[in-house]
Automatic annotation (TrEMBL):
HAMAP family: FabH. This is Beta-ketoacyl-[acyl-carrier-protein] synthase III. PANTHER family: 3-OXOACYL-[ACYL-CARRIER-PROTEIN] SYNTHASE, BETA-KETOACYL-[ACYL-CARRIER-PROTEIN] SYNTHASE III 2. The gene is fabH. Belongs to the thiolase-like superfamily. FabH family.
Length: 358
């Protein structure tokens, strides 16, 4: 039987940091209000496109795996903030990393997107269709934010993470997974002013609004991710006590704590970095995965559980068996173009535009 072993991992975080104090100069809020409700202290604002973030993360994952883009058969990009819809953004990433001839596809399952894409790539490896894939989660969520609305302005950030999968007979990689969608109440989390349902000739399309019912999403996220984890553990016939690391979607610290309590997972087994990056949607899981390896939370042969919940309402959980290697074969080489602009300077036009429209 074939498996999709994770042989490379990489991330890309833009350098401009938007602190809670900086946000308080835009909307009526403060650091205590934000951290007590979300666990977020700061987030990143990108000066480059989603494609550029994805390219850097993918290249760093390739470096880690010790292979080149020309070895890749499939590029899957999980994103809900594509640089372009037609052509898909994955095709530009494919071009940038030199994965000539590889299949390239965008996957949009919002915050669950990376785990959806990981399932897809692993299934293709197991079916013998491909041998090597790069799976990326990349988002420029600050592009959607209405900077006149406090509820969403404090939550989101930009970034990217990626993994390389390689076919192997070793029982590693994605071992069990459960994905799904509860579309009955999909409207409790959605983005306005975007998509072909809009009559773009009737009125100017203004700032997007990220609209959500926080309390309802909290309940559904905790239940959806916890139930999916239980399903995956049953699939794998794996006791919860054997899980070494929990990597949840980084949407809200309270949600992470509630899931950990429901699953009875100790704090020292949970990867949390929402304080540094906020919610980067499909990028949260791969970024957290990379940092879990970097800080030693993931050890050789670790059993990893990951879960996510997103707009749609999509949900996913995955059991990943890590391999022996926790050190990169080559150091990361990808760097973003230099920028001296602060986060507020990068957002200046967007902030003014949102203020004028509200």
């Amino acid at each position: 039987m074939l498996y999709g072993k994770i042989t490379g991992w990489g991330k890309c975080l833009p350098p401009a940091i938007l602190t809670n104090d900086a946000i308080s100069t835009i909307v009526d809020t403060n650091d205590e209000w934000i951290t007590s409700r979300t666990g977020i202290s700061e987030r990143r604002v990108s000066h480059v496109s989603t494609a550029a973030l994805a390219t850097a993360a993918a290249q760093n994952a390739l470096d880690c795996a010790g292979i080149s883009g020309s070895d890749i058969d499939l590029v899957l990009l999980a994103t809900c903030t594509p640089s372009t819809l037609v052509a898909n953004t994955a095709s530009l990433v494919q071009k940038n990393i030199g994965a000539t001839g590889a299949a390239a596809c965008d996957v949009n399952a919002a915050c669950s997107g990376f785990l959806y894409a990981l399932q897809n790539a692993t299934a293709q490896i197991q079916a013998g269709m491909i041998k090597k894939a790069v799976v990326i989660g990349a988002e420029r969520m600050t592009w959607y934010v209405n900077w006149a609305r406090r509820d969403s302005a404090v939550l989101f950030g930009d970034g990217a993470g990626a993994v390389v999968l390689e076919a192997t007979e070793e029982a590693t990689g994605l071992m069990a997974t459960k994905t799904g969608c509860d579309s009955t109440d999909r409207d409790i989390l959605h983005i306005t002013n975007f998509g072909s349902d809009i009559n773009k000739y009737q009125a100017p399309v203004g700032p997007s609004d990220i609209l959500f019912e926080g309390r309802e999403i909290f309940k559904r996220a905790v239940k959806g991710m916890s139930d999916a984890c239980d399903d995956v553990l049953n699939q794998a016939d794996l006791p919860l006590a054997d899980i070494d690391v929990l990597i949840p979607h980084q949407a809200n610290l309270r949600i992470i704590q509630a899931i950990a309590q429901r699953l009875s997972v100790d704090d020292d087994k949970i990867m949390v970095n929402i304080n540094k990056y906020g919610n980067t949607s499909a990028a949260t899981v791969p970024i957290a995965l990379c940092e879990a390896v970097e800080n030693g939370l993931i050890q050789p042969n670790a059993n990893i559980m990951s879960a996510a919940f997103g707009a749609g309402l999509t949900w996913a959980a995955s059991y990943i068996k890590w391999g022996e290697r926790v050190e990169p074969i080559n150091p990361p080489s990808a760097q973003l173009p230099h920028s001296d602009l602060t986060a507020l300077e990068l957002l200046e036009d967007a902030i003014k535009g949102c203020a004028n429209q509200n």
